[in-house]
Write a structure and sequence with these properties.
Layout (H helix, E strand, L loop, with lengths): L4 H12 L12 H14 L18 H5 L5 E6 L2 H6 L5 H10 L2 E7 L4 H16 L5 E5 L6 H11 L2 E2 L13 H35 L7 H6 L5 H8 L5 H14 L15 H33 L21 H11 L36 E2 L5 E5 L5 H11 L7 E5 L7 H12 L8 E9 L3 H11 L5 E9 L25 E5 L7 H10 L5 E5 L8 H12 L5 E5 L7 H9 L5 E5 L9 H13 L5 E3 L6 H8 L13 E3 L7 H17 L8 E3 L9 H12 L3 E3 L5 H11 L1
Parallel strand pairs: 1-2, 2-3, 3-6, 6-7, 7-8, 8-9, 9-10, 10-11, 11-12, 12-13, 13-14, 14-15, 15-16, 16-17
Antiparallel strand pairs: 4-5
Protein name: Leucine-rich repeat-containing protein 41
InterPro entries: Leu_rpt_41, LRR_dom_sf
GO cellular component, one term: nucleus
């Protein structure tokens, strides 16, 4: 029953010799120490020989700490990937495959082929045969296209096995085991099916019934051989796959003796050619099915779908790229640098951001096999070109295991059309899991509300949608050709529960937001940031729309929206009997208000038993308004307020102390019966009198949980003046 936290905290001081960032938020020092220790040893930051407890022949730093690592960051030249993929660290890699959940890449640089080979081995083990569920990439101003697409494609579960990607003179042991098990399964199935067919044939002969065609007969029928292929693969294939394979065969082997029976049958030459292609496809996909079946069953359980095996058929190369494909395959023989991502059935079909129709020359999903994939993908500050957007679009269109997608500051611009096309294709999969989408960038290619409508019309299954832009694009009016304004597209009923919109100083027109609200009956959280209100009636219209369309709304947030002239609407919100959390952040509430307005706010909150959290950061409360807010907890109050946020409100130590004394008095009057539990005080002027501030904080912490920081108000003011 004794906690070892103090021991691990002391070990941190002794070994790391640094102050951990955000130490107040660390809940488990053991986990924090072992994860940081592993990372520092892996990247050569920590010299184990400097501590006698670590420098021992029985102790392997990486091996002993690896079972406790759930998050790992690889950076720069991927030295960590090279080290982990080395033969001597095979056991370390096995431990990581069982423990690692989050894999991050940061500040990557270009790499040579040997480093990429090490990375492929690492990703294959940790993602395809491991437990990594999240891949995040950060700060890559000039990304290496080959390396970026390699990470994306393997995160999506695609891998091109074979001699080109074989390491340590042998293929992946886990893949070999699965191939062997699958071969035994198929052999047993074929044997059982053969017995059944012989028995059925015997029964039919005795009864005088026509005999069922044998496998050899099916082979003569050419295109009909897919029925046998279906039975061997133990799964129903969609007709587009059969048509595509047959069409591929017909295009490769020209035949002048075409059939005249309604165009429904092939000539003998076509039949044989088509059958050869089917057999080739069968051989290529048979082993992939075994890997996919097991990996997806482990990762998604009952949600695994056999048909996913054929999702990558859309990546068959276009005719205009066949020469490039043949050249790549002939000259390079499967190198990671020569995979291509173009496809005839790909979701990205040439919008404004996708003007170049052709091969990216990087990754062939047609030749790849499908393995387990991650459920969360995050790309932060990584510019995506048209090539990489098309590749990402093709991957997303069948990435059914993906649950969370974050695209932040990628310079998408018009290439957002590729992403929308991919979402539309993904939404057609009955087993897709995507529920959270966050898109943010400097410039918006289209108005925020229009983009929200585009996304929801393309993928109504989303539960959380966040759209954020810093600046309005001056060329916003130039829409992609063939892509009509989404304001004209009707939004189907959506599953949206959380909507966050950060406007690039755009006017908030309720008439544009209304269709979204009407389609989102399950909406529980709404956040509007940096919007301008075009008229004094606009906020009132919004509140009416919310009341009518979203009766389940629990959380409402306004940030950097000027509400100085909307006091009536503010009071109406605070009276709402459904809302549990209201945020007015940097909304200039008291810029032109009177003392009566503050009293009305306090009295309204006192009468509202539904409100649990009130956040008022950045509204220049000052000392006197903070002290007045203590009346919310007076003896005659029926308020259930638990959390109060007064960060960035020019509060000084003497004002905080007076608030504390008043709060203590009310608690005493109510016999200690108060529900107030959390007070946030970030970025206030508490450094002006440290002794008084410490006294106020000490007494407050006896009443509730206080979250504050050591903020230098003088330096912050100097920075503010320098920017002006």
């Amino acid at each position: 029953g004794l906690s070892t936290q103090p021991i691990w905290r002391k070990l941190w001081d002794d070994v790391m010799k640094t102050r951990p960032p955000n130490s107040e938020n660390i809940t488990c020092w053991r986990k924090k120490f072992l994860e940081t220790f592993f990372s520092n040893v892996l990247h050569g930051v920590l010299d184990v020989s400097s501590d006698w407890r670590l420098h021992h022949h029985h102790f392997s730093p990486l091996l002993h700490s690896s079972p406790h690592v759930s998050q790992l960051t690889l950076c720069n030249m991927l030295q960590g990937a090279v080290e982990l993929s080395a033969e001597r660290n095979q056991k370390v890699l096995e431990n990581l495959a069982g423990s690692l959940q989050i894999l991050k890449f940061q500040h990557l640089l270009s790499s040579d082929q040997s480093i990429r080979r090490s990375l492929v081995l690492l990703l294959h083990r940790l993602i395809h045969h491991g437990s990594v569920s999240q891949v995040s990439m950060y700060s890559w101003p000039v990304p290496d296209t080959v390396l970026l697409v390699l990470i994306l494609s393997m995160s999506a579960g695609f891998w091109r096995s074979g001699n080109a990607l074989t390491y340590h003179s042998s293929p992946c042991g886990l893949c070999r085991e699965e191939d062997k098990a699958q071969s035994q399964e198929l052999a047993q199935e074929q044997a059982e099916r053969g017995c059944y067919e012989r028995e059925r044939s015997s029964d039919e002969i005795q009864k005088g019934l026509p005999r069922a065609p044998k496998e050899a007969d099916m082979e003569v029928n050419g295109c009909g051989a897919d029925a046998h292929l279906n039975s061997v693969l133990s799964g129903q294939r969609s007709s587009p796959l059969r048509n595509q394979v047959c069409e591929e065969a017909s295009s490769k082997v020209p035949c002048d003796h075409t059939s005249v029976q309604g165009g429904s049958s092939c000539c003998v030459s076509d039949q044989l050619s088509c059958h050869r292609v089917l057999r080739k496809t069968h051989r290529r996909l048979k082993s992939a099915m075994g890997k996919k079946r097991r990996c997806l069953r482990r990762s998604r359980g009952p949600h695994a779908d056999q048909d996913d095996l054929y999702d990558f058929v859309f990546t068959v190369a276009r005719e205009d790229n066949s020469g490039l494909l043949n050249k790549n395959s002939a000259t390079e023989g499967g190198n990671t640098e020569n995979w291509t991502s173009s496809s005839p059935g790909s979701p990205c079909t040439g919008h404004a951001g996708c003007k170049k129709r052709g091969s990216a020359g990087i990754f062939s999903l047609k030749a790849a096999q499908r393995f387990r994939s991650v459920s969360t993908l995050e790309l932060f500050s990584i510019p995506l070109t048209g090539e990489t957007c098309r590749t990402l679009s093709n991957l997303l269109s069948s990435w059914v295991s993906l649950e969370n997608l974050v695209l932040s500051y990628n310079g998408l611009g018009a290439n957002i059309s590729c992403i929308l096309s991919a979402l539309r294709a993904l939404s057609r999969h009955s087993d897709c899991h995507l529920r959270v989408l966050r898109v943010s960038d400097v410039f918006s290619h289209m108005p925020c509300m229009e983009l929200v409508r585009c996304i929801l019309s393309a993928f109504p299954q989303l539960h959380t949608l966040s759209v954020s832009f810093d600046l309005k694009n001056q060329l916003e009016g130039n829409r992609p050709e063939g892509n009509p304004s989404c304001s004209e597209v009707e939004i189907p009923a959506s599953c949206l529960e959380q909507l966050e919109i950060r406007f690039p100083r755009e006017p908030l027109h309720t008439v544009f937001l209304l269709p979204v609200l009407k389609a989102s009956k399950s909406l529980q959280q709404l956040s509007l940031d940096s919007a301008t209100l075009p008229s004094s009636q606009e906020l009132g219209l919004l509140l009416e729309a919310l009341k009518e369309c979203n009766p389940n709304l629990k959380k409402l947030s306004f940030h950097d929206v000027n509400l100085a002239e909307h006091q009536k609407e503010v009071l109406l919100l605070l009276q709402d009997p459904i809302l549990q959390e209201i945020t007015f952040s940097f909304c200039r509430l008291f810029e032109s208000s009177t003392t009566e307005f503050l009293s009305e706010i306090i009295n309204t909150v006192k009468r509202n038993s539904a409100l649990k959290s009130l956040r008022l950061p950045g509204n220049r409360l000052g000392n006197h308004r903070l002290v007045a807010l203590a009346d919310i907890f007076s003896e005659d109050s029926s308020s259930s307020l638990r959390q109060l946020d007064v960060s960035s409100n020019c509060i000084k130590p003497d004002g905080l102390l007076e608030f504390t004394q008043k709060l203590e008095g009310y608690i005493q009057q109510r016999g200690g019966q108060i529900q107030f539990t959390h007070l946030r005080l970030f970025q206030n002027w508490l450094d002006q009198d440290a002794e008084t501030a410490q006294e106020a904080l000490r007494r407050l912490k006896a009443v509730c949980s206080v979250v504050n920081d050591s903020w230098d108000s003088s330096q912050a003011f100097a920075d503010y003046i320098s920017v002006m």
